[in-house]
Each structure stands twice: as C-alpha cells, then as structure tokens.
Design brief:
This protein is an alpha+beta fold. It is built from five helices and five strands; from the N terminus they run E-H-H-E-H-H-E-E-H-E. It has a single domain, classed as Arc Repressor Mutant, subunit A (Orthogonal Bundle), CATH 1.10.10. Helix 1 crosses helix 2.
C-alpha cells in the first residue's frame, strides 16, 4: 500500500512535538522520528482515522516507547475512546493514499 504523509517544514518545531519530547524525556528529533513511524503505521491500519481494537499500549508498542500514546493524547494528536479504539484527528488532511 502506498501513500504519503504531510510533513510541514515546521513540524519538528511545533509546540506539540516539544511537549511530547518533554513528557517522554526524549530529544525533539527522536520524537519526530517516532511520529513518522506511528503515522506510517496508522496509514496502513485505517482509511478513516479510527483504528479499532487498538489502545494506548498497542500504540506504545508500535514505536517502542511507553507513554507515547498518552503524550500524543495530551497534545490532542490522538484520541482514545472507551470501546478500545484510537482516533487520529485530521487524519484525512495529513495522511493520504
């Protein structure tokens, strides 16, 4: 499956990336790499932005960093519902096929 990710020139400097880096105690460039890895994986899992049957621990497993999903939730780049699914807001705008 092929597609694209929208990486804006200022993505590494967005406040959300900085906050995720601080929450995880990781360098900003490392977080950018984790985000690319996660978004690439997410693109393979969904066409709508909803990934059913996946919770925070599965998201953490994808990138290999405990707390990554919670950090993404805190900056509102990921939502978790009570039914065991995650949702990526603005999925259609930033992740395409």
């Amino acid at each position: 499956m092929t597609g694209w990710l929208r990486m804006e020139h200022d993505t590494p400097y967005k406040w959300q990336v900085g906050k995720i880096a601080r929450l995880l105690g990781l360098p900003r460039p490392h977080v950018v790499g984790l985000l690319v890895e996660f978004w690439t994986w997410a693109q393979q899992q969904t066409r709508s932005g909803h990934i059913h049957g996946v919770g925070v621990s599965e998201v953490d497993d994808v990138v290999g960093v405990v707390g990554f999903a919670d950090a993404m939730c805190k900056v509102r780049w990921l939502w978790v519902d009570d039914g065991g699914s995650v949702y990526l807001p603005r999925f259609a705008k930033y992740i395409g096929r």
